[in-house]
Amino acid sequence: MVWDDLVAFTAANATIFRIIAIVIGALLVRAIVGATSNRVIARVAAESVRDTPYKTKGASSSAGVRLAQRTQTLGTVLRSFANWAIGAVATVLVLGELGFDTAAVIASLGILGAGLALGAQDIVRDLFNGVFMVFEDQLGVGDTVDLGDAKGVVEEVTIRVTKVRDAKGVLWFVRNGQIQRVANSSHTT
Known about the structure:
By secondary structure, the protein is α+β, with helices and mostly antiparallel strands. It contains 5 helices and 5 strands; from the N terminus they run H-H-H-H-H-E-E-E-E-E.
């Protein structure tokens, strides 16, 4: 009798259990991606400082440290992108469980995305400029930079905003699309 009640309860609330499973699965995937990326970034950063190809006086640490900083910056951007992607997939799966037509939801999101891209060109510019700044190695976490109005040490680079702390301790949030020039005194060639 108890078993029959449990089976009936589970069948009546199957949608809720599937939604809970989707949310827990998304959180687990996010935790695994975060832990894996942190481990890879830490390993690459440690090896770049230890095994730098330049063994001359002064250059050995700067090249390795620069690679470590760039690796940490890329890791931040990739973790941010992974979080957004996992969240989007989980949202579409939950909407599917709630009875929405996922094909229509995805098509609607595509149309909405195109409309937002046209209407929010500044955000798209911020995203693209942020990705290119990181891949072109214009700046990285720990660099001393001059971005025009904001001068100081880069604390964080995301795909949309660069955070710079100045000498007075003020934290500047500079939209990546607004950065026209980067003077990086930490960059050595």
